[in-house]
Write a structure and sequence with these properties.
The chain has 164 residues and is mostly helical. The chain has helices at residues 30-39, 47-52, 72-78, 85-89, 91-102, 120-142, 146-163, and strands spanning 13-19, 22-28. α6 packs antiparallel against α7.
Length: 164
């Protein structure tokens, strides 16, 4: 596919934008994409400005993190927390914002609804057994017992496949 801009080079960059309810895709070569990259920056826009738009402007009772000293007012201005404790201290302010942005305030992963239950004891047993088998396989190889080494290798492969 040729570059939509210069019509000479192969397109290696594919930019998709959503403008006025319509999806537009532009296929560009590396050089044309580099030229566009400089003009794609929106002047005066920052993530901090975006975050601050979600907060009310009532700062009469400013909350302060007791660990790092970050205030709720600072967080509203910069969009940055000072430490892990800030999440607990500013929880009542942060949760509504996260829910507004992500439509939820709990992380559900890439595939919501898909649950993975892990039996830690079984996983540890499997790891220990694999390590013992690998050790036995190395011993079999060092004594040139290749049939036993191959059998152990196959057993390790079965354990690894079950673990996936």
């Amino acid at each position: 596919m040729l570059c939509d801009e210069c019509l000479k080079n192969n397109a290696t960059v594919h930019m998709t934008t959503f403008v006025n309810g319509q999806i537009k895709t532009v296929h560009l070569c590396g050089q044309c994409a580099a030229k566009r990259k400089q003009t794609a920056i929106i002047p005066g826009f920052s993530f901090n400005d975006f975050m601050s738009a979600f907060y009310d402007t009532d700062d009469s009772a400013d909350v302060v993190c007791d660990i790092c000293g970050t205030t709720l007012l600072e967080f509203k201005k910069t969009g940055r927390l000072g430490c892990a404790n800030c999440y607990r201290v500013f929880e009542t302010s942060i949760l509504p914002v996260l829910k507004g942005i992500h439509m939820n305030n709990k992380h559900t992963g890439k595939r919501p609804g898909e649950r993975l239950d892990i039996d830690i004891e079984k996983a540890e047993e499997s790891i220990n057994k694999k390590e013992e088998l690998k050790k036995a396989m190395r011993m079999a190889i060092s004594t040139e017992n290749f049939e036993e080494a191959a059998r152990l290798r196959d057993e390790i492969a079965i354990l690894e496949k079950e673990g996936d």
